[in-house]
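// run 5 | inverse folding | seed 20
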């Protein structure tokens, strides 16, 4: 069994579909099936089982996948150790980044960091914050950047926070807000079992109930803040979005939300990592770089 076999088992377990797993691996499905058959012959046990709803690992396949993951983790740890024996800033930095941050903030920061340390490479996963936390817990990544407040017991650093804004095409009479069409952000379904300790949606609901005794008039639902903003720009209603998604160039009316006690509703962005990983020069320098930049 090699590293690619380990990745094959991981993707089959995650996707529960040979077709989707093959797409992620840039393989044809027949080639993937052939490799799984080779593993079954090598170990003498069935690795997968097919049902009407998908393809699953057998108990033997699950045990093999767990072994393969430990093998990959140990290999990655050894690579990191060997590269950093002389404290040389080189090797591959594995990052997990909330999708918004990967789009709006990360690219110029990575460019600047690589200019400082040309010998490094990046392995970046952009996903939902809860999924990033899972990757960090499983030690698949060195550093995670998440949005919102999560339970994390190791090292963390607040990169920045931002206001939550009500946006509309024109100024709004707040007394009439419940009668106006609301373009509602609806978060995509989570693959991760983890949830935010404090939900932004719950905080917005608390703000609403402080001001109104009737629910909002939800006219549209979108799973991306960018979509909500574009609908607002066309005059189709108002929305409530994190401030990072709104710029003066959008030409929108924007108001930062506050609770009745005067507390501003804000969204935090955190850098999370394990303290011991800073023994690796590449992680230590990146953490210090991010703290300086923010």
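// decoded
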């Amino acid at each position: 069994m090699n590293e690619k076999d380990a990745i094959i088992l991981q993707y089959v377990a995650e996707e529960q579909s040979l077709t989707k797993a093959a797409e992620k691996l840039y393989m044809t499905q027949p080639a993937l099936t052939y490799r799984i058959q080779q593993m079954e012959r090598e170990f003498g046990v069935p690795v997968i089982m097919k049902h009407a709803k998908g393809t699953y690992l057998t108990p033997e396949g699950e045990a093999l996948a767990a072994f393969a993951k430990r093998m990959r983790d140990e290999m990655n740890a050894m690579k990191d150790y060997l590269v950093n024996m002389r404290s040389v800033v080189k090797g591959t930095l594995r990052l997990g980044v909330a999708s918004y941050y990967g789009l709006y903030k990360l690219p110029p920061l990575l460019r600047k960091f690589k200019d400082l340390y040309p010998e490094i490479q990046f392995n970046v996963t952009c996903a939902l914050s809860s999924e990033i936390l899972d990757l960090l817990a499983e030690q698949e990544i060195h550093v995670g950047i998440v949005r919102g407040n999560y339970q994390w017991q190791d090292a963390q650093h607040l990169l920045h926070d931002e206001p939550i804004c009500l946006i509309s095409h024109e100024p709004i009479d707040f007394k009439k807000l419940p009668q106006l069409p609301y373009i509602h952000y609806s978060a995509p379904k989570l693959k991760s079992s983890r949830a935010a300790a404090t939900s932004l949606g719950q905080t917005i609901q608390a703000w609403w109930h402080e001001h109104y005794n009737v629910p909002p008039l939800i006219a549209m639902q979108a799973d991306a803040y960018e979509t909500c903003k574009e609908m607002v720009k066309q005059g189709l209603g108002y929305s409530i979005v994190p401030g990072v998604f709104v710029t003066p160039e959008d030409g929108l009316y924007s108001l930062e939300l506050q609770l009745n006690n005067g507390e501003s509703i804000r969204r935090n962005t955190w850098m999370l990592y394990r303290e011991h990983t800073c023994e690796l020069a590449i992680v230590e320098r990146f953490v210090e770089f991010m703290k300086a930049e923010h």
